[in-house]
TrEMBL record:
Binds 2 [4Fe-4S] clusters. It catalyses: (R)-lactate + A = pyruvate + AH2; glycolate + A = glyoxylate + AH2. Its EC number is 1.1.99.14. It is an enzyme of class 1 (oxidoreductase). This is Glycolate oxidase iron-sulfur subunit. It comes from Actinomadura luzonensis.
Length: 399
């Protein structure tokens, strides 16, 4: 924890109404301002107590407070370094250690996730039984999507027509194994817009580990990802998962050196590139959900909306309370299932209020979280990634 970053906070309180846990509970120590106070106490010598660790664990890391702060406090850096300290100093109970062990030995490894897909489908049907045994296991099972048909992507997808750019593409872990259709749509959209898409062999980018204070695992996975794309010789890597893109943009700080490529979210890259391919009409009403690690951590808000608004006959609707986290936050909905459920139910009500036919999300965690909350409320809604909507429009097919 950097004392200088801690002292940047002037305790003005502008962060309070933007913080999901403060909105839920109204507790000072469960606000960014309160957590920074606890960080200061620790820097000044107070050990990490179970109560202190609990307040840090309750933070979603959504970074809405970073957007709201008039003093430019780097709460993102503070909470990530604090979580590293919590993992070093705090002794978790056996149940917590077991759940975390399962998550971090499974989710960052796509091949293991692939083997777990049949169990995930069964677990979703048994979520109620698992929840009675353990809330985190029940939450994990309830979130599991119906996995799409596995789609193998070639190492190189050639541009259609004139080549305008050459990019690398991150396939991810959860995205790759549970939402393969999103990766396929991403590659097609980039190719249709004139890009050669290079897809080297790759693994986890390290985002989940970064956000949970597992620094060594995060650095190892990040270094492997950097090597994969540097060997591929690309200068730009396009990412279609908000949490992954957010972490990859901070690789320089994590690894102590800048990688040999820049990272761009898909919508950010396409907006910068500009449209070339024809858009066909999609007569749909669409509610766009702001993933926290896209809107707050990366500052990418207008670009996805511009891309969707550029599709003929598509009606774009806003979701009320769009800046409040849905409760996914990487692994938060597994480790903090009660708070995540409250936030998910709140987001489901907001999505329902928009009255759209389709919900568009740019992060697999958000997609699973909101879909599960909508199912609980008996208001199931179709959910798609921005790439899938663009793909349908560019190819002139139904979504």
């Amino acid at each position: 924890m950097d004392p200088k970053l801690i002292d940047d906070c002037v305790h003005c309180g502008f962060c309070l109404p933007t913080c999901p846990t403060y909105v839920l509970w109204g507790e000072e120590m469960d606000s960014p301002r309160g957590r920074i106070h606890l960080m200061k106490q620790h820097v000044e010598g107070t050990p990490v107590t179970p109560e202190m660790a609990g307040h840090f664990d309750a933070c979603l890391g959504c970074m809405a407070c970073v957007t709201a702060c008039p003093s430019g406090v780097r709460y993102d850096r503070l909470i990530e370094s604090t979580r590293v300290e919590v993992e070093r100093r705090h002794e978790r109970d056996p149940r917590e250690r077991a759940v975390r062990g399962i998550v971090f030995s499974l989710f960052p490894y796509p091949r293991r996730l692939r083997l777990a897909r049949p169990a995930a489908a069964l677990g979703r049907r048994m979520a109620g039984y698992l929840g009675r045994a353990d809330a985190s296991l029940g939450a994990m099972a309830a979130l599991a999507p119906e996995a799409g048909r596995r789609q193998r992507l070639p190492r190189l997808v050639r541009a259609r027509g004139e080549r305008r750019a050459v990019v690398g593409m991150l396939t991810g872990c959860v995205q790759r194994e549970f939402f393969p259709q999103v990766n396929a749509a991403t590659a097609r959209v980039l190719a249709l817009e004139g890009c050669d898409v290079v897809i080297p062999p790759q693994g986890c980018c390290g985002a989940l580990s970064v956000h949970s204070g597992r620094a060594e695992q995060a650095r190892r996975l990040a270094a492997r990802t950097v090597r994969a794309f540097e060997r591929a010789g690309v200068r730009t890597v396009v990412v279609n998962a908000a949490g992954c893109g957010s972490s990859m943009k901070e690789y320089g700080e994590l690894l102590g050196r800048e990688p040999g490529f820049e990272v761009r979210d898909l919508s950010e890259f396409l907006a910068e590139l500009g449209p070339a391919a024809k858009r066909h009409p999609l007569p749909l009403s669409v509610a766009y959900h702001d993933a926290c690690h896209l809107a707050h951590a990366q500052g990418v808000r207008s670009q996805p909306r511009e891309l969707l608004a550029g599709i003929p006959d598509l009606e774009l609707r806003e979701v009320p309370e769009s800046a409040i986290c849905c409760g996914s936050a990487g692994t938060y909905n597994i480790f903090q299932p009660e708070a995540a459920r409250e936030l998910g139910d709140r987001k489901a009500r907001a999505v329902a209020a928009a009255g759209a036919e389709l919900l568009v999300s740019a992060n697999p965690g958000c997609t699973m979280q909101i879909a599960a909350a909508m199912r609980r409320a008996g208001r199931e809604i179709r959910v798609a990634h921005t790439a899938e909507v663009l793909d349908a429009s560019l190819r002139g097919v139904a979504l």
